[in-house]
Design goal:
Chain lengths: 216, 672
């Protein structure tokens, strides 16, 4: 069972399945073409942003990685069962990061760091980071499925050579250049570029379906 | 039902049409698939977004001043894409880094690029221009490319992560060039902080390395290491810190976070920043040599590379290159020193790293090579001609000395030989004189020899005889030896048998000796017993002699007593007659007086024989006079007396010669 990425601060129930995120589009039946185009653009931007490989990390990227790890710890799944007012995401992330730093401190010959205070962005930014982390995890899961040749049946547009698309996407997410991907797959540069483009479009369509666009 | 290729072909056709017509076209082409329309719209828009990114705009007219014409996209990243472009104004090829976002989002990168502009070095990609006024800011940089004469075209450079070094020396040379560039940047107070193979460009023909991408650089021109949104941890002592860099190549202190207010003009803080870049040089060398970055995410523990770096552990030690070549120890030591966990243990400057690598490449000793042997070997390797000349000179000198010594020896030998020749000539003359003398003696000797030959023939004849005799003797000797040998064998056998017999005899003798000792002891004991018995027998014999004497004395006495008895008998007979007469007279006197007088005279009368008889009464009456005649104190005399008394009158006498049994009986009686 897939979980949809996204977070709705106003939602009361803990389940997020099949529910649009805060900045996700409403159902297209009630929107104008311009609004729909804006929704499409947001989906496309979010997916592509999540697929970007960052070689050089800033502190924000470090924080993103910590939030992703916090997400993997299951804390977010637990918090999703709580009403949004009582979630206190920032505090949970802060505690998690401090625990993580303590674990690091116990290894190696690291000098003691006294009086550490985690400085986190506000909850809205944290929510955005959580959404991004969830999106990345979701993308990683879908890419793994593609590598195994599993294509979501809700996607009406057929995906040719899903396994190779999955492999190309995995390498693209790992930061390999298109030349390196082409060499690894044994295909031409154009074919590698095509696989990445098709895979990205597939993920965008699937993300739209997750948010109620074009579902069958 | 359409195939996948058909659907994609239809979508490609629709993508060629204006975007406003897409919904209608999709609805008409997929009338029985209502879900297809929105999905296809998303698909097409996603492709459109991609096309906008990929397409090469003919110029940056929309972005800038139409000075640059973009011709080929070289790379694309999270924040920007790099294009090859043509500078119309100066008619030159350049590289342009176009940021995806607005100038607001790229302001920091542009700020650092401005700082990097200040770096003037042959090993740094120069920043030519910065434009941040339009929708998409961009940085114009020097295009790392060289003209390929064989293909007659401009060959583009590539990142060191793609264009890997062909050898250990090439990797060292690349890092050396980068270190020089970093040192040049440090001299301009610019600190890169993100050294990695992806940020090092290699020229295609000359294969020289250039530093690119000062996106995370810090310079004196920039006031902050990071801004407030990048602050993650605030520490009590050092204040807020930020983490920036590539996780796989971060120095430990970088991964733990650097204070955001570092001032490159401050000595201590500058030292910290230099240490980060020195570590980066080591990490770059580590990757180029081993083919892997120092930090890799662990699959089991799930640690991120920056977490491993921050934990203070050391990266895996360098052993071999990715191709299996052994990394020279001096180079390995240089890398390990540059990547020392503590900044104080690292090289003090990037220029020092470059100098060390230059020394390694030039086969000069580095600061870590302190052995004289290593230094000498490196000098020889560094100066092969001098070394060869020295070796040849040494060989020539040795050869000359050896030749001179040989000439001197030869001269001495020649002089000695001349003297020897003179001496030999003298000796030859003497020999000639001696020879003539000898010839005369020889003639004389020949004559003697004839005589001796005749004698010799005689002797030979004698010798033949002697030989025969000798042969006979030899045969006899052989036979004798054979016999002696046989006899010897027999003797040996006999000797062996005799030895065995002797051993048996010795054992038996030992047994006999033991037996005889026992027997001797028994004999001695028996002899003692015999002597004792002899003594006893002697004693018994003496006693028997004494007894015999006593018996003889008793026999004499018995004879005397017998004679006395006979006389007494006669007296008794006479008295009996008188008594009978008297009895007749006394019978009258009363019986009471007779009985009383008889008991008072002999108390033993009752034992001797009861019964009233005349004989008994007569004995009692005759007793006292007989007892008075025997000597007092002699028991045998008393017994003899009793025998004389008890013997019947007129009976046979006791035997006079006692036998052995009598003797024993006598002795037994005497004992009683």
């Amino acid at each position: 069972m897939r979980s949809c990425p996204g977070y709705r601060p106003h939602e009361r129930s803990g389940s997020c399945a099949r529910q649009p995120a805060l900045d996700m589009p409403e159902r297209p039946d009630n929107t104008s073409d311009g609004q729909m185009a804006a929704q499409f653009e947001r989906i496309i931007r979010r997916v592509k942003q999540s697929m970007n490989y960052r070689g050089s990390y800033s502190t924000r990227d470090i924080l993103d990685s910590l939030v992703a790890r916090w997400l993997q710890s299951g804390e977010w799944d637990r918090l999703k069962q709580v009403v949004p007012e009582d979630r206190h995401i920032g505090e949970s992330v802060r505690r998690f990061i401090l625990d993580r730093f303590d674990q690091l401190r116990l290894r190696g010959h690291r000098e003691d760091i006294a009086d550490e205070v985690i400085s986190l962005p506000d909850d809205a930014t944290l929510v955005e980071m959580v959404e991004l982390a969830e999106m990345r995890r979701w993308i990683a899961d879908r890419v793994a499925e593609l590598e195994q040749g599993r294509v979501d049946p809700r996607v009406a547009i057929p995906l040719v050579n899903a396994c190779q698309v999955g492999e190309a996407l995995r390498r693209h997410l790992a930061g390999l250049s298109q030349r390196e991907i082409a060499a690894a797959l044994g295909v031409s540069l154009g074919a590698a570029n095509k696989r990445i483009a098709q895979g990205t479009s597939y993920l965008i369509v699937l993300q739209g379906i997750e948010h109620g666009i074009g579902g069958m | 039902m359409r195939s996948g290729e058909d659907v994609l072909g239809i979508l490609a056709e629709i993508a060629e049409q204006p975007i406003d017509e897409w919904p209608l076209l999709l609805a008409s082409r997929f009338p029985d698939q209502p879900a297809m329309v929105p999905q296809a719209l998303l698909w097409l828009r996603a492709g459109l977004e991609k096309a906008e990114d990929d397409a090469a705009p003919p110029s940056l007219g929309k972005l800038g001043d139409e000075r640059y014409e973009l011709t080929l996209r070289l790379a694309s990243g999270a924040t920007a894409a790099v294009w090859r472009a043509h500078d119309r104004k100066l008619d030159r090829n350049v590289a342009i880094k176009v940021f995806h976002g607005s100038s607001h989002g790229a302001s920091r990168e542009l700020q650092e690029a401005r700082a990097a502009c200040d770096v003037i070095s042959d090993h740094v990609v120069r920043v030519l221009d910065v434009h941040d006024g339009g929708v998409r800011p961009y940085i114009v940089m020097e295009l790392v490319a060289e003209h390929d004469e064989r293909r007659d075209e401009l060959a583009l450079g590539a990142a060191a992560s793609i264009c890997r070094p062909a050898s250990v020396q090439e990797a060292a040379r690349w890092v050396m060039d980068v270190a020089r560039g970093v040192h040049d940047a440090h001299l301009r107070n610019v600190f890169h902080r993100d050294l990695k193979p992806q940020n090092v460009l290699i020229t295609p023909i000359s294969r020289r390395s250039r530093i690119a991408d000062f996106g995370l650089a810090l310079s004196a021109a920039t006031d902050q290491l990071g801004h407030s949104s990048s602050v993650l941890v605030k520490r009590g002592a050092s204040g807020p810190v930020s983490i920036a860099g590539t996780p796989e190549y971060m120095s430990p202190e970088q991964a733990r976070g650097l204070p955001i207010n570092l001032d490159p003009l401050h000595a201590e803080e500058r030292k910290l920043l230099v240490g980060v870049d020195v570590w980066g040089l080591g990490a770059l060398a580590y990757d180029l040599l081993s083919g892997r970055p120092p930090w890799l995410a662990t699959s089991s523990g799930g640690d991120e590379p920056w977490e491993i770096a921050a934990s203070g552990t050391s990266p895996p030690p360098l052993q071999c290159t990715g191709h299996g070549d052994v990394i020279p120890a001096p180079l390995r030591r240089i890398v390990e020193k540059a990547m020392a966990p503590k900044p104080a243990d690292r090289y003090t400057s990037a220029g020092h790293v470059a100098g060390e690598l230059e020394a390694f490449l030039a086969h000069r000793p580095t600061s870590l090579d302190r052995s004289y042997a290593v230094r000498t070997a490196l000098w020889c390797r560094r100066n092969p001609q001098l070394t060869l000349a020295g070796v040849v000179g040494l060989a020539l000198a040795t050869l000359t000395l050896a030749t001179y010594a040989s000439v001197v020896d030869l001269r001495e030998e020649r002089v000695a030989l001349t003297a020897a020749v003179v001496q030999q000539r003298n000796e030859e003359d003497a020999i000639k004189a001696r020879a003539s003398q000898t010839r005369a003696e020889l003639e004389k000797t020949k004559a003697q020899l004839k005589d001796e030959v005749q004698e010799l023939s005689v002797l030979e004849n004698g010798l033949e005889d002697e030989k025969k005799t000798y042969a006979a003797l030899l045969a006899a000797k052989d036979k004798a030896l054979h016999d002696a040998d046989a006899a010897t064998r027999e003797l040996v056998d006999e000797l062996t048998t005799a030895r065995n017999d002797r051993r048996t005899t010795e054992s038996e003798r030992a047994l006999y000796k033991q037996f005889w000792d026992t027997a001797r002891a028994d004999g001695e004991r028996i002899a003692k017993d015999r002597d004792q018995a002899q003594n006893e027998r002697e004693t018994a014999r003496a006693e028997r002699e004494a007894m015999k004497k006593e018996r003889d004395a008793v026999s004499v006495e018995r004879d005397q007593a017998r004679a006395e008895r006979d006389r007494s008998g006669r007296e008794i007979a006479r008295l009996t007659a008188a008594l009978a007469t008297a009895n007749a007279r006394v019978a009258m006197a009363g019986s009471a007086n007779r009985v009383e007088s008889a008991s008072e005279t002999s108390p033993d009368a009752g034992v001797a024989g009861p019964g009233p008889s005349d004989a008994g009464i007569s004995v009692v009456v005759a007793g006292p006079p007989a007892a008075k005649s025997v000597p007092a104190g002699s028991a045998s005399t008393a017994a003899s007396a009793r025998q004389h008394v008890d013997a019947p009158p007129g009976g046979p006498a006791a035997p006079s010669i006692p036998g052995p049994g009598d003797a024993r009986a006598g002795s037994g009686d005497s004992a009683h």
